[in-house]
Amino acid sequence: MKTMTPVRAFVGGVAAVLKAPMVMIAAVLLTLLIALPFAAVLGSRVERSLASQPPVSLNETEIDPEWWQEFRAHARGLEATFTPAIVGFAAPLDSISAVLDGRRPALVIVGPILLSIAVWAFLWGGALRRYSAGRAIGWRAFIAAGLELWPRFIIISLAAMLAIVLLYLTLHALLFGPVYDFLASRTSSERTAFFARVVLYAIFFAPVAMVGLVADYARIASVVGSSNRLGDTIRVAITFVQHHFGVVTALYLIVGAVFVLVTVGYGVLEIYGGSQVGGWRAIVLGQLYIVFTLAIRLTAAAASLRLFAARSTP
Amino acid sequence: MLAASQAHGQSIDAHPPAQQLRIEQAAGAATELLTTWLGPPAAPVVAGPGVRVRWLTPQRDQSLEREAIASVTRQFWGLPQSLTPFQEAAIVYTGTRAIHHALEGSNFEVVRAFGGFIPFPLRSILLSPPVADPRPRVWQFSELPATGDSAGIVRGLQTLERYVGWPAMAQALSAMRAGGRVDASTFATTLSQVRGTSIDTLVQECLRSDVVFDYAIENVHSVAAPGGLIESSLSLLRSGSGVFAIDDQDDREPNMPILVRFADGSEIRDWFDGRAPSTTLIYTARTAVVSAAIDPELMLLLDVNRSNNTFAAETPVRPLGIRLALHWISWLQQTMLAYSALV
After folding, report:
1. What is the ipTM score, two decimals?
2. Which of B122, B130, B151, B266 is in Cβ range 3.0-4.6 Å of B109 for a Cys bridge?
3. Cβ–Cβ contacts within 10 Å for residue A311, how many?
4. In angstroms, rounded to a whole number, what is the distance separating the alpha carbons of residues B175 and B190?
5. Which residues between 108 and 167 in chain B have a beta carbon less than 8 angstroms from any beta carbon of chain A?
């Protein structure tokens, strides 16, 4: 029997996601459905504001920067998040940068983020059961698995969230406060300061990734493991990550590398291809990138499940 | 003018050669513009002081040029370190104008990520359209910020420019500088002299920080009139303490404009007294009023609430609004995924 290597697990994960298109469709639809009500509220406010725009010679899709500046000057709540960072590739750049820089999400965005975590807790149950079965399980079984495992996965997500918030409040604050200030004060150029920042990103992200990995494998252990107790599955996950640290990390890095490659590709496409804020191209590209992000996320889960199933079997 | 020897002075030596060239060009263009508009500089202008040495500055990221122009404008005015709000506003107003002119067609919005080190210019958001283009432009740049009361005065100056026109404003600013007194009352007097009508009160009103401008359409009512016509009455309200009106009744352009559109596509451009707390305009026409907009060209930039300046029987859905909302959806989805991926 062949050993399950990280590459083999990743390839198997890709195959599993491709064989289960309904899971992918469910993830895409749910992600869109969470965002839609908020976008409807914001959209109506934008429309109202645009209606009072002076009739200058703008075509239907051209943006008036003065209007946007004025809109932002009076923006509160949801409207305050309507910045140029929402346009095209700036959106993922801003989101990734916000996570790494520890920028607190606007209070009004915390709701959608928590809702997203709750929905994913449901989605993971059905998706992992489907990938574990290796064949179609039907939507009833999918929903039943999602509901059955939802309370447990919510607790796992909340525990991981608590750990990560603590890391932000302590390690991140230390690294990007006094440590970064010290390093930046000793650098002579922005380039050196940036690379110092990249090193600090890596140092900070290592424990954050570990927390995420334990949460992932705890969910997997809940689906394919023998124990039904939450504490046991978390213990199993920690033990698995410890004992198979090399392969687990390698798989994580493969997934990360694919994500970075496609993200950079998206950026290059936008820089050289160009996209108009009022055009459809940027919107379509943005949605395709989200579909890819969801696919890579499900692939990571399916690949981790294969790794766990193969390596945790005595 | 910006002398070559000064441009190559020590202040920009820390920048890489390519950036030095860009700073010199922007500073040179700005000095030339400001000299044309306002007369000679207070003292020789040097390119570079205050311009940060950036690692990544792609050509479409013009923050380097904007900083250079901001620096030149501050030197050009030659005002003391402790500025009054009006003096600060005069610098921001003229500097912003210089940025728009010097960087027309190439000044894009830039999003900075990863600690602000990585710039991503957004080609689809042009901050400074070509000068001949009637499209509006942003009124302030982060490289030349107006703080406290001066932000309102900048808006006041920009409002006055839209009322009297740039040539009159440039003439007034130039004369005020030549007189050696840079304050609101001197500017008001000078602008009145340049324009040839007394607009002192209007200028003072626009440059006061405690004044709130807010004109609104309270309601629009249409009823049937004799002869198969429709009588539409528009109730207008001055909600704020600010008054946009001039004392001189001989002035060619009376007070506040309003654009009224009827269901048959015809439209009327009218004016009403900006002093009155409320005004009722009545029109008898073949069809009813379907939309109206106080200050349709956005002259009064000081109006604190523009959403109540317009009335529309039916708000048309603009494709741009839908597309912007779709961009925001993508951003929200990506933000949700970025945070939820951690747990």
Report:
1. 0.94
2. B122
3. 15
4. 7
5. 109, 111, 113-115, 117-118, 120, 122-127, 134-140
